[in-house]
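Let's do one together. I've listed all components of the complex below, 608 residues spread over two lines.
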Amino acid sequence: MTEIDIIERLRQKLPVFPRSGIVLGVGDDCAVFRPKSSPEDLLVTTDLLVEGIHFLPSTHLPEDVGHKAVARGLSDIAAMGGDPRFCLLSVALAPGMEGAWMGRFYRGALRLAGIHKLTIAGGDLAHAARFTCDVVVCGAVPRGEALTRSGARPGDSIYISGALGGSALGLESRSSAARNRHLRPEPRVALGRFLRRQVHASAAMDLSDGISLDLHRLSVASGVSAVIDHPLPSFPGASVEQVLHGGEDYELLFTVAPGTRVPRHYDGIPLTRIGSMIERRRMRVAFFGRELEPLGYDHFRLAT
Amino acid sequence: MTEIDIIERLRQKLPVFPRSGIVLGVGDDCAVFRPKSSPEDLLVTTDLLVEGIHFLPSTHLPEDVGHKAVARGLSDIAAMGGDPRFCLLSVALAPGMEGAWMGRFYRGALRLAGIHKLTIAGGDLAHAARFTCDVVVCGAVPRGEALTRSGARPGDSIYISGALGGSALGLESRSSAARNRHLRPEPRVALGRFLRRQVHASAAMDLSDGISLDLHRLSVASGVSAVIDHPLPSFPGASVEQVLHGGEDYELLFTVAPGTRVPRHYDGIPLTRIGSMIERRRMRVAFFGRELEPLGYDHFRLAT
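Okay, and this is what the predicted structure of the assembly comes out as:
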């Protein structure tokens, strides 16, 4: 059973009560809540960070863990074109972490939050055998304007920001650029806003689990197939495996309608066309004529 | 170092950015977000549930764990007088939990969510050595009307709903009423709404960590002292210790201005006057003339 299967099975059982204000629920980067009579929708995302799964104490400094916790949530807000507003940090500390470790964790989290003017509005504190935290980030978009995974149409061009495979390379190598990429990912918040406001992207999501899996998800959500027929921009030194299936690059994947002008760079970040969307076929994602299996990081395929 | 100290130290470092929309941050049952131009404020709360800390697999069925996860968040919404709207469930499963255990966990969570018309709008899935989940519950109140911990004034009467000590008793005994109280707490959502709309309570919070600690917190937040001079309503069979310091009763503690009429019952739940607020003194909480130490459940005092 894969994570997609589990989420799909769950989703079918989840009623959306009419008064909830939820206009987009399980299955995208954020849920979308529509406050009564407001010109803005609220984006809400929640992400776990578990010691030994999402980070290793031997690799990550406490500041890196705090940075990553906040970065994961901000990246989901970026994917939907949102303005970050506030976050909640729930932290279960392992024995011995109450003093200096915790202070350094919060320093890393607060630094990144401060850069994005993200107010830390609450949270919870507990103990656990291993450090676990959950970060909730909320952002705002003008009503009805959130970028989603489901808006891609046949004929749309597919783009990605930046280069792929850097984070996976950084896990395994001593290259300091790649290690930095892995330890301190930069959520593409300003780019996401630009894609919503200026580019009017038809669909977007963040690349958290590798393009092979994430483009598969976007194609399923949009009911189309994807063709990659241009070279993927690779992080220097990354292997083909790392580029196709490596997770945690936190770049943005987006599509635009035919004729849309997309600049080559945004604020120094390359924006590269890698292919196009087509009518749904048997092959969900084609990579230079062959099927690209969704082998990116899936917590639940690994488990079963 | 206690949880109060840690949270106070953190709070001083946390900037609230003006555009965040946060009108009440760290330190109450929920954060309060004010959507642009809306007649409603949004309440947001997040709670961890960690295997071995908040529940034991030997005591709790998977359905109980799902129930409790949602109940904790709903109780925070109730404490501020909110209408539940939606929640997000982040779940890190221990090895072997992916099949039947997970299905039964979600059944318990969905059942309680359904009773309160709470839409499950998203979440995250991961693995961990031990089951950990984080539940975010969001609710709404008319703008500016959230009940808070900080509104109690000298002369106000102090009330609690229901009876105390049942959950602590249920942990240790075979009494089925007390065990049920521990395993399936009932968040006082309708009562919280009644306290906001009809009673116009001056302050409120939920009793999650024992009245000795929670009344202390409410008194600190309001800048007053509390005097308990009426008998505390006790769950049948609960010891004085369990009544004063036992956690997880999830009843409501609230205060009302002098002259406010409070009914003796609401929907079958007794509402009992236990004392009154006075000007701040050295003793934060007096219990029949002696100081009541805040010995309720504190994750961090236990740790240090």
